[in-house]
Design goal:
- The protein contains 9 helices and no strands.
- By secondary structure, the chain is mostly helical.
- The protein has 2 domains: 1-42, no CATH class; 53-175, no CATH class.
- Helix 1 (2-16) crosses helix 2 (21-32).
- It starts with a helix and ends with a helix.
- It holds the Pfam family Na_H_Exchanger.
- The chain crosses the membrane at residues 24-42, 54-71, 77-97, 104-123, 135-158, 179-197.
Length: 206
């Protein structure tokens, strides 16, 4: 009940003071969360609803994504996406290595987390009717590029960690590791994404 009350009251209170409704949700969530008042735990239902909400936001952005506008402005979107990924990624990686004293895999994971994007303001953009603006199309496209790169880094980090654990286990058992090498798995993934998948989609939808 408290969670529903916050979801309903947050936007109303914020809009009364002239702020976007999202601001009210953020501030009420901060105060009701475990680090201030402790009324609502992060685990369980709240975490699941958050994951569903993020997926819905990405789906909503993809649903109204204009591929023709992206192709017309693809150079700007790609450059913006690369800058939006690499600047926070490199800074976070350097900070994690230099000040937190993390290992390479941990620093890469921190960099991927800071470099990813979530389109939390997109519902307000839709409500204002700005989704067809050039800047908005470039920002959404750049967010997709940054998220793809972040997911790629995350996949490499998790795969490398799993392979290292499996190699250690198999070296103790003195039996060969049947897992594919990481470089071979990445080559197969790239071949599937850039060669096989486009042909399957063309055959399916064209």
């Amino acid at each position: 009940m408290l969670l529903l009350a916050i979801i309903i009251a947050g936007p109303i209170i914020a809009e009364r003071f002239g702020f976007p409704g999202l601001i009210g949700l953020i501030f009420l969530g901060m105060f009701a969360g475990p680090f201030v008042l402790g009324w609502i735990p992060v685990e369980g239902l709240v975490s699941d609803l958050g994951d569903i909400g993020l997926l819905y936001l990405m789906f909503l952005a993809g649903l109204s994504f204009n591929i023709r506008a992206f192709m017309e402005n693809r150079s700007n979107a790609i450059v913006y996406g690369l800058l939006g990924f690499f600047i926070p990624f490199v800074m976070s990686y350097y900070f994690a290595i230099s000040f937190i004293d993390l290992e390479v895999l941990g620093a890469l994971l921190v960099g991927a987390m800071w470099a990813s994007n979530t389109l939390v303001a997109y519902p307000d953009v839709l409500a204002a009717g700005l989704q067809n603006k050039r800047a908005v199309s470039a920002a959404v496209s750049a967010g997709v590029v940054a998220d793809l790169l972040s997911l790629t880094v995350l996949g490499i980090v998790t795969s490398t960690a799993v392979i290292e654990l499996e190699d250690a286990a198999y070296s103790e058992a003195t039996t060969p590791n049947p897992a594919l090498p990481l470089w071979l798995g990445l080559l197969l993934l790239a071949a599937f994404c850039f060669w096989l998948l486009p042909r399957i989609t063309q055959w399916f939808f064209v």
